Amino acid sequence: MTALSGCGRGPASGEVKLKLVAADYGNPGGENSSKIYWQKIADAFTKKNPDITVDVTVYSWTDIGKKLTAMVDAGNPPDIAQVDSYADWAAEGKLYKVSELLPIPVQAEFLVALAEAGEVRRVQYGLPFVASTRVLFYNKDLFKKAGLDPDEPPESWRELKSAAQALKSAGVKIPYGLPLGPEEAQGESLMWMLGNAGSYVDSVGNYTINSPENIETFKWLRDNLVAPGYTEPNPQRVDRQKMFEAFVKGDVGILNGHPTLMQQADKEHIAYGTGKLPGSSGPAEGTLGVADWMMAFNKNDKNGHREACGKFLAYVFEEKNHYAFTSQYGLLPVTTSASERMRKDEKQKKLWPFLDQLAGAEFYPVGKVSWAGTSATIKKSIGRAAMKGGDPNGVLTMLQRKAETEEESAPS
User: Fold this and answer.
1) Helices (H), 1-111
2) Interatomic CA distance for residues 303 and 77, integer angstroms
3) Smaller CB count within 10 Å for the chain: N or C?
4) Mean pLDDT computed over every residue of the chain
5) Are 128 and 117 in contact (CB under 8 A)?
6) Rounded to whole angstroms, how far apart are CA atoms 358 and 110?
7) HSE-up of 383 (CA within 13 Å, CB side)?
8) β-pairing, 52-59 with 16-23?
9) C-alpha torsion angle, residues 363, 295, 313, 129 (rounded to 10)
10) DSSP-assigned letter for residue 297
11) Can you say whether residue 183 is alpha, beta or left, with left for phi > 0 and alpha for psi between -120 and 50 degrees?
């Protein structure tokens, strides 16, 4: 891989030791632990580049956030990290720009929507690592039981309400699963907002949480799904994983989900179908996209590891290496070449509906330094906007004000 000219060099001996900290997408210590993948990549990279070694540390998703933050706060960040956010460190000047790390041909490989999601103030610092999108899942056997066509998922909110009503009449425990608890309320909410031409931010990045469209969306949820009892009781307290588990037990008729749910449903032999997210008057124009990120810490360039970091990252995103990871864990590639390979791989056929949506998906505004705090508040509170007797205007306006406060106090 072509190295950038003028980059920092390693120690006088010519040897560089990079420290990599990554998240585990499998079971820590198990046969599918991501540590196995990263160690193979590190060893193969060093075989090609004998003057660069890579020390690999992998933490569970439960631990990696606090572990990595502690390292950075102590002034001892790793050279490279793979985690779910990057904007705070970019705003603090602790990360290399992507343009300082990768040659232009490698940069050009990333899907445009994902590369743009890695920007802070229009400069890319975050490298998308893997992605996923969301589709509507429904239980075909429960559809048959309710007299619904098992090959025709609802495409509009009106059709969704009608299907939920039929499922409830047929005795289905949870006609529509609406997880608005703190695990991923921000995701479920955005999927519904997108179905009514809403979002968290506008085209220039200003918060629009309490837009008329979003208020209308939550009023519809409250009045047409929650109040009539077509969802689980108190959706503002129910987490996504709990609803996924209920779906694979056959207790849920319809819900939004990502590729992990597909794997869980296959394991339990659930007959399910998928479709586009329903919108207010037809299929939603977009869907939620979620990405995890890689980044390289500059450490004020004291150690001169920029060139080595760039070489390793370019190696990670070579087609065969990137595809090996995404195909193992049922995730979507973030590069053009690996995406094209998945689109031709019959073994990954079930992922094609998710892959087809990736280029047009809407991502969280992770490039906003204020998003981490705003997202945490949304997770805790936004579910109240859809609860029976809830006040969508009041809840969303409170969240809008808190988001604006976070934005005003963010590092400039």
Assistant:
1) 34-48, 61-73, 87-91, 104-107
2) 12
3) C
4) 93
5) yes
6) 12
7) 23
8) parallel
9) -30
10) B
11) alpha
C-alpha distances out from residue 100 to 95, 156, 274, Å: 10, 46, 41
Query: Which tens digit of pLDDT belongs to each residue from 187-224?
Result: 999 999 999 999 999 999 999 999 999 999 999 999 99
Chain Cα centroid distance, residue 308: 28
Find the largest Cα–Cα distance for the chain.
Answer: 75
Read off the tokens for 128: 């998308």
User: What is the value of pTM for the model shown?
Assistant: 0.87
Tokens of 373: 């705090």
- How far is Cα 167 from Cα 162, in angstroms, rounded to an integer? 9
Show the tokens assigned to 345. Answer: 């791989």
d(CA 332, CA 353): 11
Residue 93 DSSP code: T
Cβ 364 vs Cβ 200: under 8 Å: yes
How far apart are the C-alpha atoms of 290 and 34, rounded to whole Å? 19
The percent of the chain in helix, strand and coil, each rounded to the nearest 5, is 45, 15, 35
Rounded to 10 deg, the angle between the 240-248 and 259-267 helix axes is 30
CB 113 within 8 A of CB 363: yes
Q: How far apart are CA 52 and CA 4, in angstroms?
A: 16
CA-based nearest residue to 380, from 90, 247, 110, 184: 184
Residues 191 and 389: their CA atoms lie apart, in Å, by 22
Other CB atoms within 10 Å distance of the CB of residue 276: 21
Q: Count of CB atoms within 10 A of residue 143's CB?
A: 26
Rounded Cα distance between 72 and 323, Å, is: 30
For residue 51 the two structure tokens come to: 């003057």
Task: Report the distance separating Cα 330 and Cα 314, nearest Å.
Answer: 22
Can you name the residues that pair with 18 across neighbouring β-strands?
Answer: 54
Residue 224 per-residue DSSP state = I
Determine phi and psi for 176, rounding to 5 degrees.
Answer: -125, 125
pLDDT digits (tens, 9 = 90+) for 12-58: 445 899 999 999 998 778 788 999 999 999 999 999 999 999 999 99
Q: 13 exposed, middle or buried (CB, 10 Å; 0-12, 13-18, 19+)?
A: exposed
- 137: which strand partners? 255, 274
Decide: helix, strand or coil at residue 92: coil
